[in-house]
Amino acid sequence: MKISRTSFKHPVTGLHIDSSCPRGREVVRDPPSTPDKTDGRPNVALLYLLAFSPVVEMPKQIHEIKDFLLTARRKDARSVKIKKTGSVTKFKVRCSQYLYTLCVADSDKADKLKQSLPPGLSVQDI
Fold it and tell me: What SS3 class is residue 111?
């Protein structure tokens, strides 16, 4: 198979990628099969790629108000969203890696918690 000028070989996987494709990049063909030259050693570049690729993390739930306030005061905390659904108020603080959620059933406690949030955070009522 002839490889066009717009295709290139991926440095980690060794697959030929076509960058002129209208839907983005596509694999043109698999690399030719060659005998294993690693002598049983793992492919370090592939392991590095897998170790440092972004991973989607699930949100975390906090059950104590004190722990939530400590999390909201962290350096990497960016914003707080307050969502009221019926009798339950949810406080969601966005940090660099996780979204932390606290569910409060008592409306008085929710009002006190809203007043005690750090002033530097952006607060959104949903």
Answer: helix
